[in-house]
Model the fold of this input.
Amino acid sequence: MTPDLAAVKTYLLSLQDKICAGLEAEDGSGRFEEDNWTRPEGGGGRTRLLANGSVFEKAGVAFSHVRGSKLPPSATAHRPELAGKNWEALGVSLVLHPRNPHAPTSHANVRFFTTVAPAITAQESRRSSTEVPVWWFGGGFDLTPYYGYEEDAVHWHRTARDAVSPFGESVYPRLKKNCDDYFFLKHRAEPRGIGGLFYDDFNELGFDRSFALTRAVGDAFLPALLPIISSRKSTPFTDRERQWQLYRRGRYVEFNLVWDRGTLFGLQSGGRTESILMSLPPLVRWDYGFTPAPGSAEARLHEIFLKPRDWAAENV
Done:
């Protein structure tokens, strides 16, 4: 079946609208400013940013629809047969940095990618000169708390599990493991947060069902996040807790600049730097060799929450 690019674009634009409206309502005072941009090689997007809100210190929600004539290395490392091919990509990507240290940072992304590849002969022994469409979906969402709450982790993962359960019992465990494996800082040997869902190169269900799964993931983000933000946004906090938040934000920066494939793809494909790097927090700090005090709430984050765990099966 030929992918319906127009349907994907319509959904992604509506998803951006819905998420921005939900975040503005939760914040109460902050409003998104929209920046429409075009890309010289083809396509463009609309980046929306809410800064210095009552709840969100920085929230970015970006839509892009871009195309090019040569795939960058980050997209062909595992698919060398696609090198030099025309491509087209659509997606919504967002990162939210709340002001309160007890409210977690969150990230979500849903995207669609299409290109062409040489067809394989019936014997699968050689590639023909005929090119066939190649497409896939990707995305997911993950949570990065600064202070751990079991009930928040359970709610987050149960919402993720329920979103993808109509697509098979094995989908949630697989996408959860993908998330745990992907959002991992190899240079520090520690997870970025408590995970969620992550998938890429996903076309195994055919276009209609793969698109339905992607919509389910995108639509589940606000129900997964907003109850957590609502319950934590007014929690009293100290300057020590604020400094811990800024310190842990450094891990977020390190992952996005060193390991994130979306960042690499955007920069290598000549994307718009401001939109690519909107995920970075407005304030952050690094302290040399810092170790949380034993028995502290900060140490508890490392000891209990920054370890893969089947949160959806927990009873709280």
About this structure: The beta strands are 33-38, 43-51, 56-68, 87-98, 105-120, 127-144, 184-185, 190-191, 195-202. Residues 200 and 219 are 18 Å apart (CA to CA). The radius of gyration is 20 Å. The first strand starts at residue 33 and ends at 38.
